[in-house]
Specification:
There is one protein chain. By secondary structure, this protein is α+β, with helices and mostly antiparallel strands. Helix 1 crosses helix 3 and helix 6 packs antiparallel against helix 8. The two termini are about 30 Å apart. It has one domain: Chorismate synthase AroC (Chorismate synthase, AroC fold). The strands form 6 sheets. The protein has a 5-stranded antiparallel β-sheet, with helices on one face. It has a 5-stranded antiparallel β-sheet with strand order 10-9-11-17-12. The protein has a 3-stranded antiparallel β-sheet with strand order 8-18-19, with no helix packed on it.
Length: about 350
């Protein structure tokens, strides 16, 4: 079954549960002879990890990664690259009281219906801790793509009802200097206030992450079922808590006329480009050389400490108050996950295109 495998030529096979022994994966298809910067991989894991502030889960994992195969003397061998990260701060006792309870808007009920049983410890494999393996594979892909002049940058565009200012170019350092990974300082202050109020009320907040991909040549993507935007949507919608995906002008295009929305071709410095970019850098499912950009909408985290009504596995109506360590707002930690999934999509397409003409 391929439910735990992502990609075609550049593949991630991921494994592990939230409170199991470890989280890890096997990356296949990474070209041989590439010198990986391990400090950059660790940096990406640091961006994703918990216990980063008022908005984040208090679970404190060091996320020390161990590579088991596929790398020799600092360079990739072209063979499977296996890695694992130990769950050193797991606390399954937090979940003992809900082992027979279906938590509202969690995967408890659906997983039990599918498999006949479930790992109740923090949601098991349905936990967002599973995304750690994606960040590792994405961090590797980002390094390879950067050597080709391709950059992938994501940031927090909205939390709750607070939206940051739209920017045509966002600097990565500016994002990392922000506790919420939001490049708009005024909006960030308002977002922090909203998060503080939600935390005191035992509630959570969702929002929107914007992602920009620059440096792609024209011609990347497959024209029918595996359109570039379709592959990105598949990748991003596979992230826990993502409820929506739009690229380019997205849903706003539904209110526009063709004369407003069309991106006219122009010549700039003897190069074909477009006067506008409502297409989001993609036309006919193939990159056109412009910036590719998309938005990912995240729902509020389902684990809230308010009393809620639900049922248990005996079909009895009960009330539940979820205990444990949970995020108030997952958006800042999800930024590297969005970048990682986008990087794996582009890496896969670049390798496929190398067999053609890229």
């Amino acid at each position: 079954m391929g439910a735990n495998t992502f990609g075609r030529l550049y593949q991630l096979h991921s494994f592990g549960e939230s409170h199991g022994k470890a989280i890890g994966g096997i990356v296949e298809g990474f070209p041989a002879g590439f010198e990986l910067d391990m400090s950059l991989i660790k940096f990406e894991l640091l961006r994703r990890r918990t216990n980063q502030g008022v908005f984040s889960s208090k679970r404190s994992e060091p996320d020390d990664i161990q590579f088991l195969s596929g790398i020799f003397e600092g360079k990739t061998l072209g063979t499977p690259i296996a890695f694992a990260v130990e769950n050193s701060n797991a606390n399954p006792k937090d979940y003992e009281s809900i082992r027979d309870i279906y938590r509202p808007s969690h995967a408890d009920y659906t997983w039990e219906m599918k498999f006949g049983l479930r790992d109740y410890r923090g949601g098991g494999r349905s936990s967002a801790r599973e995304t750690l393996s994606r960040v590792v594979a994405g961090a590797m892909a980002k390094q390879y793509l950067e050597k080709m002049g391709i950059s992938i940058t994501a940031w927090v565009q909205q939390i709750g009802d607070i939206q940051s200012e739209e920017k045509s170019m966002v600097d990565g350092k500016e994002i990392e200097n922000s506790i919420l990974r939001c490049p708009d300082a005024m909006a960030e202050r308002q977002m922090l206030q909203r998060i503080d109020v939600a935390a005191k009320q035992g509630d959570t907040l969702g929002g929107v992450i914007k992602c920009s991909i620059r440096g792609l040549k024209a011609g990347l993507g497959e024209p029918v079922f595996d359109k570039l935007q379709a592959l990105l949507a598949h990748a991003i919608l596979s992230i826990n808590a993502v409820k929506g995906f739009e690229y380019g002008s997205g849903f706003a295009s539904a209110a526009m006329r063709g004369s407003e929305h069309n991106d006219e071709f122009v010549l700039k410095n003897a190069k074909i480009t477009t006067a506008t970019n409502h297409s989001g850098g993609i036309q006919g499912g193939i990159s056109n050389g412009e910036e590719v950009y998309f938005n990912a909408a995240f729902k509020p985290v389902a684990s809230i400490s308010k009393v809620q009504k639900t049922v248990d596995n005996k079909g009895e109506l009960i009330e539940v108050e979820i205990k444990g360590r949970h995020d108030v707002c997952v958006l800042p930690r999800a930024v590297p996950i969005v970048e990682a999934m986008a990087a794996m999509v582009i890496m896969d397409l670049v390798l496929l295109q190398n067999n053609n003409q890229y």
